Amino acid sequence: MTHPVVHFEIAGSDGERLTGFYRDLFGWDIQGAGPDYWLVKATEDGIGGGVMQTRDEMPAYVTVYVSTDDLEGSLRRAGELGGETVVPPMEIPGTGSFAMLRDPGGNIIGLFRE
Predict the structure, then answer these.
(1) CA distances (Å), origin 43, targets 38, 66, 100
(2) Which of the 8 DSSP states describes residue 17?
(3) pLDDT digit string (tens) for 30-71?
(4) CA 16, CA 24: separation in Å to the nearest integer?
(5) Would you say 37 and 52 are in contact if contact means Cβ atoms under 8 Å apart?
(6) What is the 3-state secondary structure (H, E, C) of 37-94?
(7) Mean pLDDT of all residues in 85-109
(8) Confidence of residue 2 (pLDDT cuts 50, 70, 90)
(9) Residues 49, 99 contacting (CB under 8 angstroms)
(10) Could you give the angle at the alpha carbon of 85 between the alpha carbons of 76 and 52, nearest 5°?
């Protein structure tokens, strides 16, 4: 696969409760990674992810992040295909960069570049 899914994210208004729910339900190893964000450790059978506490009027969501070497190019191509940019490229200090798009069906998908 040229652009694999490399991360998932589950977000809601009570991040602590979500973290406990998924830790207890699936036995996930989840550690704090900053204000209102927790990382789910990858296993040999699956990718890692994150749990995020939403802010203000932001709705709950579940999304995946797809690897790309060119965030801007991928967003541009998504626009040509009927998608739209939701979050422009942003740096994650010490990790990489990400962006988010909405596909023609209304789904929010993340892009990630190391």
Answers:
(1) 16, 18, 25
(2) H
(3) 999 989 999 999 999 899 999 999 999 889 999 999 999 999
(4) 12
(5) yes
(6) EEEECCECCECCEEEEECCCCCCCEEEEEEECCCHHHHHHHHHHCCCEEEEEEEEECC
(7) 95
(8) confident
(9) no
(10) 135
